[in-house]
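Milestone M4 deliverable, item 7.
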Amino acid sequence: MAVTSARTIALSALVLVLLGATLIRIGQAQPLPVVVGFLQGNPVSHWSGGVNMWKPPAVKPGDILVFQWFAETHDVQRFRNILAFKACSFFNAVPLTSASQLGMRLFQVKPEHAGKTLFFGSSVGKDCQRGVKIAIPVN
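Output delivered:
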């Protein structure tokens, strides 16, 4: 009987520990997927011309930026700074995808991005000049 009681107590303690760990995880903010270039109410919004005119999404470290496009050839590159972004200069930009007509790229916002602005654009043809670029502040 004492062995059964000890097992019951041990199993109960294990269940409480696992339940506590689960509750802590649930209480944490989960990463949020953010579609870049998504225009509220427009079901066909995607990484395309004019994205730079849209309100940038509100993101925080841990969120996942989703760049997606179809029917047009684009790529995704991360500009080094605001000057390169404004000038559409891809010198020293970090390529995140190669050019393709159908694409998707996920980019996770890291803790070191907090308080900074991330700059992205497409280097294909005149994409950047047409507004296929966006500045995303990280809160």
